[in-house]
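Exercise: predict the fold of this chain.
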Amino acid sequence: LKFRSTDSVLFAARVVTVICSLYYVLPIGSHSAQNSAYSKAFAAAAATNALRIHQRVGGIRFTREFLSQVLLEDSCHYLIYSVLFMSTAPVTMALLPIFLYALLHAANFSVQACNATGYGATLYARKVAELTNKHTQSLLGVIACSEVFIVPIFIAMIFTGRVSIFFPFIYYRFLTLRYMSRRNNSTRIVFYQLRVSLEQAVSGPNCPQIFRSSAYGLINLVCRLCPTGA
């Protein structure tokens, strides 16, 4: 592990994210302790993604090309996401993406560590490798769904005064970055599947016209908001 010190630090930060997320969700502590765990989960996720950006693009350069390169990185998207939720009222669903990503990457690194130290044939290593290979795509879909379904929660939080009215605009920027991701097309797939499902649901003859019109109006609005360069 000493030859992969950066990856070891990333592994530790991801373990912190997993533990703090579970501590917040499970009823095992006081309310203040759980809120603290919530903030620490996002702080650890932010540190993880900041380090991943440095690992992939190197040091900071004050150029437009560097900024464009950083914005293409998935780690940048989730750095924005983590910082955003650190400054708002707790939203349990918001923990799901950082928890699942941390869990997947920590599991993969633990398998790599087992292989590097001669324990790759153990039951633990084989089982973890099997589970991650089998369920990674499904979990990426779950992550993308949770990111989309957070939007109506934000709308409700605006009316209750729990978040700033500018918050959804920042989150919309995050969603557009995820939609245009070069390495993970799960967000695009989720939007397509939601559109198809909604169209099928309202296309039946028994669906009231007002619901059908509202559904197609929503679909048209989302299509206009989707990035054109994806």
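Check your answer against the key: The CA atoms of residues 191 and 197 lie 10 Å apart.
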